[in-house]
């Protein structure tokens, strides 16, 4: 009689998520219409045909271009609400959400518009979706550090509700050390620290993010597998790596999901979690990432429970909140 009871989703934390990467094609068209913006695609199908990427930069070009439809606080709020609703259905009980303020400032959108639009929805995420949330201001590593410093100062001056900073965009040629002063200033301001490293860039960028920036967490980090000494250090220090399997396949940093290093990373004892990165662009949310991993690998119940527990332990949530979720 209980055959219809659905499988219970493990509560997980999503730690690596770009809110602008949750803009679904349908919402892109709806916002374009609402704001009188002409898109360079005739319809949804034509837009979807652009979702075939050759590397990180080919994705970033489309990701930044589509942000043109985000004009008002309400637009940022609508995007954020849609993500929370979908993530809650995926079993996400805590989300740490990156926003790229510089990508909006450069289009003439104010810091208040983008930050307040996202933050207004995060403020009631617990009541609305049973999900705790933390906003992470992410800085574009292909811009000068001076720009990042100005934006961080402006965020602090407006008392923006951010809990951490991150570092994203084009990795190769923009090593972590370029942002040493930014991370020092954020640490002084009491913010938590994470950075993308070892996605397309080399294992040495992971080392640099730890040693020069002092980050607590590494976003992606899969290239650490090229350096056995680094793997040993990451295991010893329990450094969290927020891995994004479907993203890595779509951006061609691995050939196929079957070639993904996640099982090897688990076997090595690394503190890895499963995240969606830019789910509207890469074919799935956290639940889709888990489902596709399970279709390709023999993940044991133990492995799945460990991935879920790692995500919660590795979050910037309070110890009380972590205890509730474990
Ligand atoms: N910005 C959005 N998604 C990103 C990714 N996967 N890597 C670097 N920058 C990004
Ligand atoms: Zn990312």
TrEMBL record:
Catalytic reaction list: adenine + H2O + H(+) = hypoxanthine + NH4(+)
EC number from the UniProt entry: 3.5.4.2
Annotated positions binding Zn(2+): 16, 18, 196, 277
Positions of the catalytic residues: 199 (proton donor)
Keyword annotations: Cytoplasm, Hydrolase, Metal-binding, Nucleotide metabolism, Zinc
Cofactor(s) of this protein: Zn(2+)
Database matches in InterPro entries: A/AMP_deam_AS, A_deaminase_dom, ADE, Ado/ade_deaminase, Metal_Hydrolase
UniProt-listed GO biological process terms: adenine catabolic process; hypoxanthine salvage; nucleotide metabolic process; purine ribonucleoside monophosphate biosynthetic process
GO cellular component: a single term: cytosol
Cofactor note: Binds 1 zinc ion per subunit.
Entry GO MF terms: adenine deaminase activity; zinc ion binding
Binding sites annotated in the UniProt record for substrate: 278
Broad EC category: hydrolase
Record-marked site positions (Important for catalytic activity): 220
Domain Adenosine deaminase: 11-326
SUPFAM superfamilies: Metallo-dependent hydrolases
The family this protein is said to belong to: Belongs to the metallo-dependent hydrolases superfamily. Adenosine and AMP deaminases family. Adenine deaminase type 2 subfamily.
Function, as annotated: Catalyzes the hydrolytic deamination of adenine to hypoxanthine. Plays an important role in the purine salvage pathway and in nitrogen catabolism.
PANTHER family hit by this protein: ADENINE DEAMINASE (PTHR43114:SF6)
UniProt name for this protein: Adenine deaminase
Species in which this protein is naturally found: Pseudarthrobacter chlorophenolicus (strain ATCC 700700 / DSM 12829 / CIP 107037 / JCM 12360 / KCTC 9906 / NCIMB 13794 / A6) (Arthrobacter chlorophenolicus)
Lineage, uppermost ranks: Bacteria, Bacillati, Actinomycetota, Actinomycetes, Micrococcales
